[in-house]
Design brief:
The chain is built from six helices and three strands; from the N terminus they run H-H-E-H-H-E-E-H-H. By secondary structure, the chain is mostly helical. A three-stranded antiparallel beta sheet has the order 1-3-2.
């Protein structure tokens, strides 16, 4: 196959998703840093905790946002140090720490969400709700397949 021949859509999806994910993240980081909100991983962790709700475990948050446990521990240590989250002991399992946003953390999440919503609205303006839901459903199927493959290894 020469470089100019069209490729089957399935052969393009992964490459396009990786590139799009990077560009999406860069656009988000640029908007947030312009507002004095930086460190994308920190923001992802805080938004993840906000979306999932207070009282989830560190391992649940790591799985939900797709980062390994040791990376998350360092991230959470920074957030605790900044008084944006707090770790509380699990009522029946002292090995498990449950995560909670602090008042300062909630304030920061609201500022992040405001800019995130504006960016999402701008980037998705050409997609109606039905198309967006189809996209989300496709992402969910791909994510489930990845999880299934990871379970087998």
């Amino acid at each position: 196959m020469t470089p100019k021949e069209p490729m089957a859509p399935r052969r393009v999806v992964g490459f396009r998703m990786v590139g799009l994910g990077r560009r999406w993240r860069h656009a988000l980081d640029s908007r947030l840093s312009a507002a004095g909100l930086s460190d994308g991983d920190t923001l992802v962790g805080m938004i993840g905790l906000h979306r999932l709700g207070d009282g989830i475990s560190q391992s649940e948050l790591a799985a939900a946002i797709g980062i390994d446990g040791s990376t998350l521990v360092r991230l959470l240590d920074m957030l605790v140090e900044q008084d944006l989250i707090e770790r509380q002991p699990h009522p029946s399992d002292r090995r498990v720490k449950l995560l909670h946003l602090t008042a300062a953390g909630r304030t920061k999440v609201l500022a992040i969400r405001k800019r995130l919503i504006a960016l999402e609205d701008e980037l998705l303006c050409d997609l109606d709700d039905e198309t967006t839901q189809i996209l989300i459903d496709a992402f969910d199927k791909i994510d489930q397949r990845i999880a299934s493959l990871n379970d087998k290894s």
